Amino acid sequence: MRRCIQRSMKKTLALLFALAVSAQAITYKMRDIPKDSPKFAKILAEMNRHIRQQNASPPLPGGWTFKILQTVGPGKYIAVREVGAERETCALEMPGTVMVDDSRVQVPVEENGIYSYPSVTGANKTVRCYKRIVQEQKAQTPEMTADDLIAKLKSGKSCSFYAPKLTRCQVCSGTGKGTEKNGKCPLCAGKGELNMPIFCRVEW
Ligand SMILES: [Zn+2]
User: Fold this and answer.
1) Among the four residues 33, 103, 111, 121, which has the most C-beta atoms within 10 Å?
2) Centroid of ligand 1 to alpha carbon of 160 (angstroms)
3) What is the pTM of this model?
């Protein structure tokens, strides 16, 4: 038990250390770096890698699964929201759709008040209402040329990105060994080095 607590404390310390290292930041003053230098090219390549990554990330999470029970109006349904084993009877608004009873749909939604309808017993039933969020096409940021970057920075804007950097693990001093016999370092898992993203700020 005590060993277990010690181990979890060690893990916490290791994580704190990791956070401290990843909080490292570098500021590049581009006015001091010639446009045709390898250093400029490397920074620009990292900027564009960051832009490509941003462009590729999904705009919204996938939403929830709803099973349609019945149609109660144009594009409006009584449905069952399914989250894991949880089931919630609700209303679902999806303007412009025609859904068949007992079919399922997975959509991102937002809450939209409550909805009342007469149940089979004649008593009014009040449920939560969800409305489909229509995903807008995510704007794609174009990649930058050296001149684009310089113009942007000269206009007073800054850019930033995270650059991956392999750093020697300071918990195990690069040995990869843990304190227990034949154990591995809890932070780097025995590799002796870590990929620590460094925050890079680019300004004129
Ligand atoms: Zn280590």
Assistant:
1) 33
2) 28
3) 0.49
